[in-house]
Write a structure and sequence with these properties.
This protein has helices spanning 20-36, 73-80, 84-90, 120-123, 143-161, 207-210, 219-227, 250-254, 322-331, 357-370, 384-395, 414-427, 437-449, 452-457, 459-470, 474-480, 514-522, 543-546, 548-555, and strands spanning 6-14, 46-50, 58-64, 93-107, 127-135, 167-175, 187-194, 229-242, 262-263, 271-273, 280-286, 292-299, 307-311, 336-340, 378-382, 403-406, 502-507, 532-536. By secondary structure, the protein is of the alpha+beta class. The chain folds into 2 domains: 6-242, 2-Layer Sandwich (Alpha-Beta Plaits), CATH 3.30.70.100; 257-412 and 489-555, Rossmann fold (3-Layer(aba) Sandwich), CATH 3.40.50.1820. Strands 9-10-11-12-14-13-15-16-17-18 form a 10-stranded mixed beta sheet, sandwiched between helices. Strands 1-3-2-8-5-7-6-4 form an 8-stranded antiparallel barrel. Strand 11 and strand 12 form a beta hairpin. It is elongated, with a radius of gyration of 28 Å. The mean pLDDT is 95.
Amino acid sequence: MAHHPGMLYVTMQPAAELAPAEFHEWYNNEHGPTRLRLPQIFSNGLRYAATDDQQPHFLASYDVTSMHHLATPTYTTLRANRSPREAGVVAQIAISRYFYDLRAEKRNADVFKPIESLSDREAEGQVLVAVEHVVQADNSDNEAAHQKLESWYDEEYTPMVSKVRGWLRTRRFRTATDLADPATPLTYLHLHEFARDNGLSNKSEDEPSLYGSAYQPTARHADVHSSLITTARHRTYGLFYVFGPAPRDLHSLSQLSNDKAFVSSPDARIRTEPNNGAPTLQAFVTTSDGLSIPYQIEGNPDPAAPTIAFSNSLLTSYHMWDDLVALLKQHRPEFRILRYNTRGRHAVPEPPVPATLDMLADDLATLVGALRIEKLHALVGVSMGGATTLKFALKYPALLDRFVACDFNVASSDANTAAWKERIAVAESPAEGNTPGIRKLAGITVARWFHPHTMTAKPQVASAMTEMVGDNDVQGFRYSCQALWGYNLREGPEMAQCKVPGLLVVGDGDGKGALVKAMEGFRGEIGEKGVELRVVPEAGHLPMFESPEGFWEAVKGFL
């Protein structure tokens, strides 16, 4: 089988009884992202809706890096192992799948950008004109006929189309005969891409009229169509959704009834819950070194809603933000909310390597990109997440509008490194009775983290955090905590030149007040004018967990 690029081209017509939201939620949150998690096969995934009055109404296209991949188990098992939900939805859709080899491409070099590199805002509404030319059966194996046809495409047809205002790119494909059903007629497919603002005509009864005065049929046009082409069809579509490897469609999910909740099997790593219009979506992304990072998105289901992301501390999960997120959803319903588990919570890649702040910032950038978030409205992080937040602001300023960094320091010391090594020894120590080493570390850690007021007046809060810390992966802790060894965000000019507006927050009892002094000492070094520091009373190292109302008071104006 040939090793060259091509396309998987899928047309779909849902049955009238299949609710549109159910169709889109399945495709956007299960079907499409599953394929985009195979970047060695699929470089993009795009969804279009017809703008003409023809059916099928929906089109999905996937650029394929090499068509031979579509005959490998990596791809074929996707279809063989459909979830029960997918099988039920697919049974209600008339689906036609086509395989095409890429034959030629012409771009408008001045303005063309691949759709997957654009933001959703930039990409939505681009126009696709899909033209199929079915080759006469007696010319299917006639190489001279193909040369004549392709010469016409290159010398006359595509140059004419490229003169239409708003033209971006034309690609020519041909049926991949080694993948298609033998009964499939040999077809040339032309995909003409246009900007939203274009010179296409509304008169689209035939293809030439669609291009207006830019396209004037010639004698050569007539000869090719009469002697080589048996059927010519054209369709017009508007782009409405671009896949990433991370499910993100809260809008469709919010329109479903609660009985349409979905849990992937057997791993349960993807969960979609309509929650009576207040949807929650849990899934994962894969980092460049192969680690799965779980995340959860919720809040405003509008795809254009601004997103606030949260980066948790070492040893905790994204559930440490639960109470604060509840307040945020209550008081600021305009936001979409993104949480994720820092590497080391569940595992580290094999072979394990120590984490760095650069690596943690890159993980978040990978997640933001996979979710196709153009720019975070805000990033809030605490402890190691606080250091990650500042590092992210310095390394990826174009992805962030503002940040809140809490209970951290901009540099570590030899004493800090020694303390982390002692904690690793506790976590890896033999169990005492039914208490493994990581559980011993949890008790010690929470007593050190929390304010005395929390320990005495809110024992249930301390107990919940002890459970959360005790559930951490031991090897994950060993290698992720090393991100806090020997780092110094003061090195280089980046911190002083930070352009992203920031706010620092700290619990008044963190380190018995020592961290308040430390953060007061470096707040003037962030950006040209420094940043403000706010102190949460009766809170220690995790003020948003110990005193969510107090923390909300500290940050609500800034957010």
